[in-house]
Write a structure and sequence with these properties.
By secondary structure, the chain is α/β, with parallel strands linked by helices. About 20% of the residues lie in helices and about 20% in strands. It has a single domain, classed as 4-Layer Sandwich (Purple Acid Phosphatase, chain A, domain 2). The protein has a 9-stranded mixed β-sheet with strand order 1-5-6-7-9-11-10-14-13. The protein has a 7-stranded mixed β-sheet with strand order 4-3-2-15-16-17-18. The protein has a two-stranded antiparallel ribbon with strand order 8-12.
Length: about 475
C-alpha cells in the first residue's frame, strides 16, 4: 500500500473522552518523576505568595453561556443525562487540595482518590456520580507540568466520569524566572480548558482526555444543579476574583461581568434547580474571637471577595443555595442566615480541602497560648466582617480537622444534600459523618431526622448470653 493510500488513524487516536479502565490498577509505590521537596523554594518566595497575582484570558463564549454536563461526556452525553433524569436525581463528588507535594504526602492523596474511584465504580446506577468537581490546588507546589501525571492523572486513572476543576493558588502562582510557556495557568488551561478532546502530554500513557471547560471560571449546567465556578487567583491569602478597583493590578474584572450575567440568566429563566458557587479560597475560615487564646489555622477568610459576590447577588436578586471551597486542609460547615428580598435564607458555606495534600488543625497556638477548638454549633458571626447583604448570623455547624475527606452531593427537583465522608489512611472507607440538606424552593435547611430509638435492655428477647470478656469461645 502506498504512502498516499495508507489508512491514517484519526489524531488523537482516542477521539472521545475515556474515563475508565476495565479494572482498578495497582497503586504505585513512589513517584515516577523525581520529586524532591520544594520546601527551600517555598521559603525563598514566601513573601511573594502574598503579593503576586496573575492575569488570565476571558472564558470562551459570552458571560451568560453554560457548559453542559452532556458536552463533557461526549457521545455518551445524551445517555448519561437521560439516566439521571429517569432516576430523578444527580449525584456527584467534590473536594479540594488533592496534590501531594512530597512522597510522604502521596499516601493521603492515593487513599482519597482510590475511595472516590471505588465509590464511583461500585455504586448502583442511580447512585453513580456523574462527575467530580475539584476545588483547586491539584498540583503542588506550583502547578508544574511535569507533576500533573504524578499528582492528577495517575491517582485518578480509575475515576469513571468527567473531572472538572477550578484552579487554586498552587495551580497558578508563577515562580519568578519561569518561562512563559511553563506558567502554571497555561498548563492548567491545556488540561482543563482545551478546545478539543485531546490527550495531553501531561497524561502520559493514560487515556483520560483533557476537559473542554470554557475557561478557568465557568458555569457547569447539569440536571437539577448548576455550579458557578470562580478563580480566586494565586495569592496564598486573600482570595481575589477581580482587581478590586485597581488594588490588584493585572487581575481582570471578567468574573464580575460573568457572575452578573449568570445570575441574570438564572433569574430570567426562573431556574428551579440548586445554584452553587465554587471558589478555591473560602469566604469563611475559622479563627477564635478577639481576646481568646491562640489563633486560627493557616489561612484566613476572604471578606472582600465575599462582599463583591454579595453585591452582585443583591443587584441581580439571586442568591446561591450553597458555597463550596477548599484551600483550608480540613472540613468546615457553616450556616449563614441572610435576609434576602422578602425571604430569610439559610445558606451552607462548606470548606472541603482534605483531598490528600495535608490535614491542618482548625486552631493553632499563638505566643505560648494554646487555642481550643470550637464546639459544633458555635456562633461565629464575628467572622462575617462588614457583610454586603443583610446577614443575620453565622454558625459553625460541624468541622473535622483530623481526617482527609470528600463531599458527596445529591440533588433532585426539591432538595440538595451534602454528605462529608472522612477518609483515614490505612483504614476502610467510612460512612458520611456529616450531612446537610437544603430545601431548594425555600432556601432553608431541612431538619435532620431524629436518631433511631435506643434498644431497651428490658425489651430484648431472652436468649443465650454472649461470651465473657477475656474468654475465648
Amino acid at each position: 500500500m502506498s504512502r498516499d493510500t495508507a489508512y491514517r488513524m484519526p489524531q488523537p487516536v482516542f477521539d472521545e473522552p475515556v474515563f475508565s479502565e476495565s479494572k482498578p490498577t495497582p497503586d504505585p509505590t513512589r513517584f515516577r518523576v523525581p520529586h524532591p521537596s520544594d520546601a527551600a523554594l517555598y521559603q525563598r518566595i514566601q513573601q511573594l505568595l502574598y503579593e503576586d497575582v496573575v492575569t488570565f484570558p476571558p472564558a470562551r463564549g459570552t458571560p451568560s453561556d453554560l457548559y453542559a454536563l452532556a458536552t463533557a461526556w461526549g457521545p455518551h452525553g445524551p445517555e448519561v443525562v437521560r439516566s439521571i433524569e429517569e432516576a430523578g436525581r444527580i449525584v456527584f463528588h467534590t473536594v479540594g487540595d488533592i496534590g501531594a507535594s512530597t512522597q510522604g504526602k502521596y499516601p493521603g492523596e492515593l487513599r482519597v482518590s482510590d475511595v472516590l474511584a471505588r465509590e464511583a465504580q461500585l455504586a448502583a446506577p442511580s447512585e453513580r456520580p456523574a462527575f467530580l468537581y475539584l476545588l483547586g490546588d491539584l498540583v503542588y507546589d506550583f502547578g508544574e507540568a511535569r507533576y500533573y501525571y504524578d499528582q492528577f492523572y495517575e491517582p485518578y486513572r480509575n475515576y469513571p466520569a468527567p473531572i472538572f476543576a477550578i484552579p487554586g493558588n498552587h495551580d497558578s502562582f508563577i515562580v519568578p524566572g519561569s518561562p512563559v510557556a511553563q506558567w502554571p495557568l497555561a498548563t492548567f488551561r491545556r488540561n482543563f480548558c482545551s478546545e478539543e478532546t485531546v490527550v495531553t502530554p501531561e497524561a502520559g500513557s493514560l487515556h483520560r482526555t483533557a476537559m473542554t471547560q470554557p475557561g478557568v471560571y465557568f458555569a457547569l449546567d447539569a440536571p437539577y444543579v448548576r455550579v458557578v465556578g470562580l478563580f480566586s487567583n494565586a495569592l496564598e491569602d486573600p482570595g481575589v476574583i477581580s482587581s478590586e478597583g485597581g488594588r490588584w493590578k493585572g487581575v481582570p474584572d471578567y468574573q464580575l461581568d460573568f457572575l452578573a450575567a449568570q445570575l441574570r440568566r438564572a433569574k430570567r429563566e426562573r431556574y428551579a434547580g440548586a445554584l452553587l458557587f465554587a471558589v478555591h479560597h473560602p469566604p469563611f475560615n475559622y479563627a477564635p474571637p478577639a481576646g481568646a487564646p491562640g489563633g486560627g489555622g493557616a489561612h484566613g477568610g476572604n471578606p472582600a471577595m465575599l462582599a463583591q459576590i454579595d453585591v452582585i447577588c443583591r443587584a441581580e436578586g439571586v442568591y446561591p443555595h450553597a458555597f463550596l471551597a477548599g484551600h483550608a486542609h480540613n472540613y468546615q460547615r457553616y450556616t449563614r442566615t441572610v435576609q434576602f428580598g422578602e425571604g430569610t435564607y439559610e445558606v451552607p458555606f462548606l470548606v472541603c480541602g482534605g483531598g490528600g495534600h495535608d490535614v491542618q488543625s482548625l486552631v493553632a497556638a499563638r505566643h505560648g497560648s494554646e487555642a481550643s477548638e470550637p464546639a459544633n454549633g458555635a456562633d461565629v458571626s464575628y467572622l462575617d466582617v462588614h457583610p454586603a447583604v443583610d446577614a443575620k448570623g453565622l454558625r459553625l455547624d460541624r468541622h473535622d480537622d483530623r481526617s482527609y475527606g470528600f463531599l458527596r452531593v445529591v440533588a433532585d427537583a426539591a432538595r440538595i444534600s451534602f454528605e462529608f465522608t472522612p477518609v483515614i489512611v490505612g483504614a476502610e472507607p467510612g460512612v458520611a459523618a456529616d450531612t446537610v440538606t437544603i430545601d431548594i424552593a425555600r432556601h432553608a435547611l431541612v431538619p435532620a431526622p431524629p436518631p433511631p430509638p435506643s434498644e431497651d435492655v428490658a425489651d430484648k428477647p431472652k436468649g443465650r448470653r454472649g461470651p465473657r470478656r477475656g474468654r475465648a469461645e
